[in-house]
């Protein structure tokens, strides 16, 4: 998020000074690291939690449409970055991988068919397929088909337009470009306090973790893009807009294999249905990953609990986040989220064998010994005040001061995939007097900015061809056709 916002600001206002402070020794070592997230370019092609079924059996696709349009901005921003030398070889950060929804059983197959019918005529989801023929499924997903009973009912929604994204690589490349254009990047520097001055500027207190020296930096605008640590910093700022907000940390683990033969037998990101009581971020999926040019497979996530707000955070993070203004919000969520609590307890008690059982439901013929258990990034779900209680949210939200001098991002999935849309929202909220002047440049970077692609299908088709070709997601012959 911070790298994206910095790149946008530097493009819009080249003369503005930018300083970044990161507590770790390098960029993208928390949630943006490729092994701390699933790398799914979230365009709602396969995630079933974005397309819930209504009581009458129809499927609500409104959330899927919103997320897809947001991801189109990211694709355009990255394609523009490649064309301008901001980003390097597209294969270092984005690769074409089909996105697939997978279900078993007649009832879920009927739901998937209804989902396909609700999406197939939408231009944002052009080409999505419904597949229930066992031979065809075996051809497309041989690793998942081997070892299954012949009479088992299976169905897919298949989209060839999906991607795998190394968000760590995107972040490092954006920050490298920023640094080469005058931005000051400070690693092993921890922000300890934020205080607004009488002239509305901010004094940021920073500690150099190598020397122990503290310095104070004056800023006209501050963005807090500290992942799970953003809540603490926004609380330190004292802005009234953060009152009532809390955080619920959820850790995650994945089973991963770098076995080249296994990776060759599965080329897709396949999402299933979440267990009853599970949060949306815990939807099981078997993913092709491309990291540093190497193909691997990752299955999960397995949810867990840690009081840390960052993977390299502190055991006191959760306790320190409890304030008089958010106490009732957090207690209310605790009392009203018993299914989630039960789910997390069950996840914590799972043995390795039980985790492998979940993998075998996706791919029965796999040998679990080929997979290792890795710990992924820490997610802090947003708790927002709701009357005298609180509501647990599973998306992202931006919080900004009414004077537009500070903003921060809370929450998790889909997170990085929609970073561009989220950061454009920050610009619109915090710099309303400049947006009109910035608009031509924003449109240059993201041609669909301010446009409803549902209403301009010609522009959508043109931008897809351009971004596909620039990001090398399809061959030139397909583009020309």
TrEMBL record:
EC number(s) given by UniProt: 1.1.5.4
Keywords annotated in UniProt: FAD, Flavoprotein, Oxidoreductase, Tricarboxylic acid cycle
The protein's required cofactors: FAD
Annotated catalysed reactions: (S)-malate + a quinone = a quinol + oxaloacetate
GO biological process, one term: tricarboxylic acid cycle
Pathway given in the UniProt record: Carbohydrate metabolism; tricarboxylic acid cycle; oxaloacetate from (S)-malate (quinone route): step 1/1
A GO term for molecular function: L-malate dehydrogenase (quinone) activity
Descriptive protein name: Probable malate:quinone oxidoreductase
Record gene name: mqo
